Amino acid sequence: DWTMEEFIGKEIARIREICGDTCGGVDSTVAAKLMHEAIGNRFHAIMVDNGVLRLDEARQVNEMLNKDLGVNLTVVDASDLFLSRLDGVEDPEQKRKIIGNTFINVFEAEAAKLEAAEADKGKIDWLLQGTLYPDVIESISFKGPSATIKTHHNDMKLKLIEPLRELFKDEVRALGRLLSIPASLVQRHPFPGPGLAIRILGPVTRAQVQLLQRADAIYLEEIRAAGLYQQISQAFAVLLPVRAVGVMGDQRTYEQVIALRAVQSEDFMTADWFVFPTDVLRRISSRITNEIAGVNRVTYDVTSKPPGTVEWL
Length: 313
Ligand code: XMP
Known about the structure:
Shape: globular
Number of strands: 8
Strand content: 15-25%
Helix content: 40-55%
Order of helices and strands: HHEHEHHEHHEHHHEEEHE
Keywords: ATP-binding, Glutamine amidotransferase, GMP biosynthesis, Ligase, Nucleotide-binding, Purine biosynthesis
Subcellular location: Cytoplasm, Cytosol
Distance between the termini: 57 Å
Bound molecules: xanthosine-5'-monophosphate
Number of helices: 11
Structural class: alpha/beta
Enzyme class: ligase
Largest sheet: 4 strands, mixed
GO cellular component, one term: cytosol
């Protein structure tokens, strides 16, 4: 004798969960908060620091999920492992593959640790994914790089729970607001799973990552200060694999080049480059070249999609 209500309650109660490689993004945060509301601390989120996140990202996400949202989150710092596997790799698809596979390795090891530590609660059966409706369409219609990343978790022998699979992005944002997720997070620009590795056009080293993190942080700080963040769909800095000649004092310099990207887009299938007020670009350029040793030139990308893509790799 059972009712459907009890069945739902019992099924949900079995779920002890984990969220994926873009943990800290809007979708996985909303999905995680939903799970937390449903089953509290029987839900576990794992965030893998892959060494190619934005400046201070791991710490900020940890603080927000743990402290502000009360979600049970473990952050695993696997940056050494990721960066050693990326050593010398330039091909973008190779970078994506390495990051995807390493993510699965780290994630599975961490899930096994969690399971062992809480053996009294039984096995982990379910995997939470923040898949949206457009992802559902995408992953059955073509196998592009992002679809491959997004479906990676299916390699594990866990049943999938996808609470957002009927929703579009703006609906997820509305749901996030309803769940009291801070506006700063709900409005956040998307960030790709392979992170800064696909925004460093040459080989990925810790020094290059740190340089790009700082340029990217200055860029976004100035965008926010100018009140433009909400008008832009996605903005980021790219580190080009060339050097340019410059001058500092009476010295000739020969240093790296940063490209800035900002686009407006409904669905990221097409995108327009964003028209900045001149003074904002001027400030960003002078801050990046003044504050970051090793960079003597900043360029702005004025290419729409198509023919360009949003990312450079
Ligand atoms: P493109 O460069 O294809 O980007 O015009 C469209 C959107 O997809 C994001 N993107 C990715 N997201 N893994 C991800 O999770 C990836 O490998 C990947 N490549 C591109 C990109 O940031 C933009 O929002």
